[in-house]
User: Fold this.
Amino acid sequence: MTSEVKIVECVPNFSEGRDLEKIEKIVAPLKNQQDVKLVNYEADPDYNRLVVTVMGEPQAVKKAVLEAIVAATELIDLNHHQGEHLRMGATDVVPFIPIRNMSMAETVELAREMGQAIYERCAVPVFLYEEAASRPERKNLVTIRKGQFEGMAEKLKQDDWEPDFGKREIHATAGVTAVGARMPLIAYNIDLGTDNLDIANAIARSIRQSGGGFQYIKAGGVELKEKGIVQVTMNITDYRKNPIYRIFETVKMEAMRYGVPVLGSEIIGLAPLEALTDTAAYYLGLHDFDSSKLIETALIE
Amino acid sequence: MTSEVKIVECVPNFSEGRDLEKIEKIVAPLKNQQDVKLVNYEADPDYNRLVVTVMGEPQAVKKAVLEAIVAATELIDLNHHQGEHLRMGATDVVPFIPIRNMSMAETVELAREMGQAIYERCAVPVFLYEEAASRPERKNLVTIRKGQFEGMAEKLKQDDWEPDFGKREIHATAGVTAVGARMPLIAYNIDLGTDNLDIANAIARSIRQSGGGFQYIKAGGVELKEKGIVQVTMNITDYRKNPIYRIFETVKMEAMRYGVPVLGSEIIGLAPLEALTDTAAYYLGLHDFDSSKLIETALIE
Assistant:
C-alpha cells in the first residue's frame, strides 16, 4: 500500500458497433488483466462505434489497450464501414485522462508513448490531440478528423498534416488514429426556477469561455418542457481550475439579477471523486482535507 | 464488475504494543490476502496495544482476522501484561464497520458469526457490543470491560454476565473478547472566531445528544490557545442520520446568536466517502447523486 499509486483512465473508440463477435475480440485483451480494470464497453449500432472505458496503472493500461488496438486493426476494414459517427480509423481516438496522483505532463507523456507504440505495432499513423497536441491547430479533434477516413490519404500529404508518428500514408484498412490527453470532463446542469429560456441563455453566456467567462466552461441554455423550467447545461473541462462550487455560486449570483431562484443541479454521467470532495471542503471551510482522508482510499491504492 | 460488492472494515485491538516479533506474527495472516486489504497497524508501547485496520469482502475479512486472533491467543499472556489502556483480552475488541453496500443488520450478523468462530477456535468467551449487543446494558464497551482481565473470571459468574458465546470461564491467558458492530465514527471540529470557551461549550451542549440535541453527536468545547480561538469538537457516530452539513449549518446558526463567525472546520482521521459526497450534494442541490457516479467507484468494486 502506498498513497502514490497512479491511476489513468483510457477511453478508446473503435469503429465497430454491430458485429458482436468482433467487439468481443477487441475487448478481450482488456479483461482479467492485473492492474487494469475494464470499466465498461458500449457498442452503438447506429454510430457503428464501440466506446471502451478502462482504468488502472498507466503502463498496464497502455499495454492492454495496445493489444485491443492490434485486434481492432486486424478486424476492422474502414473501406466497408458506415455509421452516423464521424471516424477516420479502425481505432478512431484514444484519450488518456489522469484520475489519481498523475499530472497532465505525465498523461501527455503516456499518450506520446502510446502513439509511438501504435505506429510500431500496427503501422497506423497517429496524430496527437488535446493536451498532447504537438501544435495548437491539432488540439481540436474535430480539425484532425475533418475529411474522415475517405479523405485522410490526401490530407496526410498536405504540408500541415504530417502525422506525429508514422509516414504520410494511411493504413489501407485501419486509417489513422488520434491519441490524446485531457482532464476528465464533467457534464453538469443547473436548474433555474423559470421557464424563460432567454435567462438560461444569458447566464450560460456570462459563465462560458466563449462569452468571456470561465476558461474551462462550455455552456448553453436548454428548456425542460415537461418540468416547466430551464437549465444552464455545461461541460466543465477542467474541474481543478474551474471547480463545481464556483460555477454553481456564480450561476446563483447571476440568477439573482433576474429574480430567479436556483433549484438544484445534476451531474450527468461520472465525475471524479476530487470534484465532489473539493466542493464539500469549500462549503465546510475544511482545512487540510484531501482524498487521502477518505476511508475508501485504502481500497484504491 | 458489479455495483453490489460489499465492503466491511474491521479494527481489531490486540494487547501487545511492544514486542515487534509478536506484532508481526499477529498481522501476518492479514497480509497479501485475496479480497482483504491491511490498511495499517499501529503499536503503542505505552498503551501496550496494537490497533489494526483491515477492509474488504466481509467473509474474507472475517476469516483473515480470525487467524490473527488465533495468533494473538497463542502469543499474548494477559497475566504478564501491563499498559495504560484498559483491556480484558489478548484480542481485546473486534469492531466491524459497514463501508459499502452493507446494512447494519448484515454487519451485526457478521459480528455474531465472528463471536461464534472465536469461541470455537480459541475457547475465548465473547461479548457482543454496540449495535451487535444482545441486551441494552452491553451496548457500551466500557461497561463490558469494567473489571478488566484481572476481574473477568469473577464477573463472568455474575447473573448478568454470561458471555454471548462460550462458558462463564475466561481463557486462562487470553481472557475475554468483545466483538461489535458500529457505524464509522467521524471526528469533526468546527472553528469559532472567538477565544471565549463558554461560547464553544454552550454551542456544544445545544447540538449534542446529552444536551437534547442531535442523537448521534458527542460534543464539547476546546480552546486552541496558540491560534487564539475555540472549537466545537465532536464525534459523529452516525453520519447517515446526522450528516456533517446539518451539524455545520446548525453550529453556524447558533454562533450567530453570539455574534461569532464560524471560521472553518476539520475532519480528524478518516471519513467515509459518502459523508463528503452527501455534503457536496446538499450544497449543490444535486438530484440523483450517489457514489456510483464517481469515476473511482469502478476501482473499488
Notes: Chain A has a mean pLDDT of 94. The first strand of chain A starts at residue 7 and ends at 10. The CA atoms of residues 153 and 259 of chain A lie 56 Å apart. Chain A touches chain B through 47 residues (CB under 8 Å).
